[in-house]
């Protein structure tokens, strides 16, 4: 059977981890953290990180969902080693293992009908007993079943003693074997169950460390039955507590975005911010909060994973994203923001516009927590004259503000060197001559230039818009006030 191993490690001491999502929808943010932990542990130890798509649920698995998972992995920078393994394509191998267990006496044919099993469950429910298969065909002669009767193949699970997992996160976990039933390995139509497929694939892929959510801890004990029956080496388990919402319940749609694509597209977050936040969600390294990818690879170990569920804090994630926006390359940010500006204004930004957007990033970055906020802050650069003022901006041009705006426009007309120092000197002189603070000039000037009450520094705004556009916008508001 070893000849059928898929992507198995050649070195017995080499760490091999895997991420195995089901393609029934988007890449869940909790799944993204699982993938990150697996990726980091593999990279930290110099091992391999593998990707398996568990697409055995044919009714719910879709190509768009597979693409969404791969896209999310690429966005997060979680590259995997070797080819992507698709579980459904390995169904024959799964069945081969089930039949091998049947031949060795570690599994048996069960001819119980759906009606019998439904009646059994009803009896157990009425008696308030755990609902599990009672082993009625475990030691029965298959010849007792009428010829042609459909059957499933069940694991002949151990009934005596205990099963123990020395979990790298949860510690020592013990389950009495009497609590485990004879689970189905092959359905009556010959298709493998999830439990069988996972174990076979992990073995054939050479997986040494199974790092996954602690909602799979119970599954681990059932899967151990297959591993022991086949005489395969047991993987090292690390069951990570789930992510909870602010209310303490398991993270779900009602808490907000749960798909990785929403963090990118709708929330406007950077992948490095999302990864940094997910890393700190249940894992720690001293007091470090801002952790680069290189540091994460160097520091990550399973001992740093906590046993308690973490609570997702969207505000904290946004604040972390603000840090990464300030650190990001201006050209990269401009490329990410471009489509958002184009969509809002229904325009197409040309090469010169891209250059302007890039130049504006230094002034826009300090004020933005998300790409959406960056885009919102950049809109004034591409809006056409005459500008429509929002309500707050309009109030800034009331009273004597227009007269001050006119004096400012006249002063700016005389500037040949359209640079921030020269612009600042001219505007400050207007304020000084009028005997007022700079803010009294800056606010109506901001309203005239951007149509808003808030913007980057007013001298940055003037420099970015340029001489002709700046003077034109100021003139538009003066005319409108006449």
Polypeptide structure, described:
It is a single chain. This protein is mainly α. The chain has 3 domains: 1-84 and 198-327, HUPs (Rossmann fold, 3-Layer(aba) Sandwich), CATH 3.40.50; 329-381, Helicase, Ruva Protein, domain 3 (Orthogonal Bundle); 391-481, Arc Repressor Mutant, subunit A (Orthogonal Bundle). The protein contains 18 helices and 12 strands. The strands form 5 sheets. Strands 1-2-3 form a 3-stranded parallel sheet. A 3-stranded antiparallel sheet has the order 4-5-8. Strand 2, helix 2 (63-76) and strand 3 (85-86) form a beta-alpha-beta unit. Helix 15 crosses helix 17 (438-450). The protein is elongated, with a radius of gyration of 32 Å. The model is unreliable at 1-12 (pLDDT under 50).
Termini separation: 89 Å
Examine the coordinates and then state which fold CATH places here, giving the name of the CATH topology of the largest domain. Answer: Rossmann fold
Q: What about the largest sheet?
A: 3 strands, parallel
Sheet with most strands: strand arrangement: 1-2-3
**Shape category:** elongated
The CATH superfamily title of the largest domain: HUPs
Structural class: mainly alpha
Strand count: 12
Distinct helical segment count: 18
Low-confidence stretches are 1-12
What is the element string, with H for helices and E for strands? EHEHEHEHEEEEHEHEEHHHEHHHHHHHHH
CATH class of the largest domain: Alpha Beta
**Total of domains:** 3
Under the CATH scheme, the architecture of the largest domain is 3-Layer(aba) Sandwich
Proportion of residues in helical segments: 40-55%
Domain Glutamyl/glutaminyl-tRNA synthetase class Ib catalytic: 14-318
Protein name: Glutamate--tRNA ligase
Subcellular location: Cytoplasm
Catalytic activity: tRNA(Glu) + L-glutamate + ATP = L-glutamyl-tRNA(Glu) + AMP + diphosphate
